[in-house]
Amino acid sequence: MSKTTYRSADVDGFKVFYREAGPKGAPKLLLLHGFPSAGHMFRDLIPLLADKFHIVAPDLPGFGQSDMPSREDFIYNFENIAHVIERFTEVIGFDRFAIYVFDYGAPTGFRLALSHPERITAIISQNGNAYEDGLSDGWTPIKAYWQDPSPANREALRAFLTPDATRWQYTHGVPDPTMVSPDGQNLDNFYLARPGSDDIQLDLFGDYKSNVALYPLFQSYFRTRKPPFLAVWGKNDPFFVPPGAEAFKRDNPNAVVQFFDTGHFALETHAAEIADSIRAFLK
């Protein structure tokens, strides 16, 4: 079994921490995590795929073990995050690769695809949205902040940053919550509790509207490029609902969509099933 190593890359002075596994000559697979997590969310998936793929899972800027500069030194928006990750792939020699995108990883990865479509060999989206059809009512307070970025609306979003909110994200929609390890959510809460992390996350909540504004461009990319596309979706996700997964087939009729009876963090309960789906998809 391939061992996972833990490394850091210097990306133009920005430290990006990443997990790496698999043979260097194997097809490349980039794993991009979401909020409020880090590359550790792939801890169960990586060993299931590392015999066939060269896997890299970076922590996004401001997340996990990657650098978290102050808001004065780095503007936390999705454009800048995607730029750092794009340069990261160049630094480590990922020239052509498939991407697995989840939550925040989706607008990051889709930006990479827009910037360099020739580098993307396939896309696996696990609850990674690109359609307004996929946004649930759970986005209402965040949308209110988009429309009116007042201090009161910003303050209201702090409710998403509490330990209870993290636990809810991990367990909502999971038929048997005892299947969800507390380890991932507790580590996420540790990172969220770092000084300055709260305002960084609130900045990203506000900037998520830039991703919605890019949805038409993402959809045009799916429609014109038609990359091999697999959507593996926790059907009980409280934020990204199943119509968002089905919508990929509108622009890419060859897209494969699979639903699992679980919530937002589908890998917590269905890593083996998702790994099987990826193996069959990328064979």
TrEMBL record:
<dbReference type="InterPro" id="IPR029058">
    <property type="entry name" value="AB_hydrolase_fold"/>
</dbReference>
<dbReference type="InterPro" id="IPR000073">
    <property type="entry name" value="AB_hydrolase_1"/>
</dbReference>
<dbReference type="GO" id="GO:0004301">
    <property type="term" value="F:epoxide hydrolase activity"/>
</dbReference>
<feature type="domain" description="AB hydrolase-1">
    <location>
        <begin position="29"/>
        <end position="270"/>
    </location>
</feature>
<dbReference type="Pfam" id="PF00561">
    <property type="entry name" value="Abhydrolase_1"/>
</dbReference>
<dbReference type="InterPro" id="IPR000639">
    <property type="entry name" value="Epox_hydrolase-like"/>
</dbReference>
<protein>
    <submittedName>
        <fullName>Pimeloyl-ACP methyl ester carboxylesterase</fullName>
    </submittedName>
</protein>
<dbReference type="InterPro" id="IPR051340">
    <property type="entry name" value="Haloalkane_dehalogenase"/>
</dbReference>
